[in-house]
Amino acid sequence: MTFQEPLISIVIPTYNQSSLLERAIKSVISQSFTEWELIIINNFSEDNTLSIVSSFKDERIKVFNLSNG
User: Fold this and answer.
1) What single DSSP character describes residue 3?
2) Which residues pair with 61 in a beta bridge?
3) Cα–Cα distances in Å, from 31 out to 7, 13, 58?
4) What are the helix (H) ranges across 4-44?
5) Please, are residues 66 and 43 in contact by the beta-carbon 8 Å criterion?
6) Rounded-to-integer distance, Cα 49 and Cα 20, Å
7) CB 41 within 8 A of CB 13
8) What's the start-to-end Cα distance of the chain, in Å?
9) 11 near 37, Cβ under 8 Å?
10) Rounded to two decimals, what is the model's pTM?
């Protein structure tokens, strides 16, 4: 797979929702349209959110740890 500039950005905000995150990421990856980037905004989750994100070896997936407090 060669990386192209994304035409769309998908943003998933999350906080301690690792039980749903893997399914959400797989849903994005399974789309037939491939020119996307997935931006995950993690509010310093205390569950295994980061390990789930890092298990996907796709350069279109980016995670940012931001605190809203």
Assistant:
1) -
2) 38
3) 14, 20, 14
4) 18-29
5) yes
6) 10
7) yes
8) 38
9) no
10) 0.85
Sequence-separated contacts (24+) of 41-44 with Cβ below 8 Å: 41/11, 41/12, 41/13, 41/14, 41/66, 42/14, 42/15, 42/66, 43/13, 43/14, 43/15, 43/67, 43/68, 44/15
User: Which stretches does DSSP call E strand in 1-69?
Assistant: 8-14, 36-42, 61-65
Rounded distance, CA 1 to CA 59, Å? Answer: 10
Per-residue model confidence as pLDDT tens digits over 22-69: 999 999 999 999 999 999 999 999 999 999 999 999 999 999 999 876
Q: Which of 64, 67, 20 has the alpha carbon at shortest distance from 43?
A: 67
The pair of structure tokens assigned to 33 is 């349209």
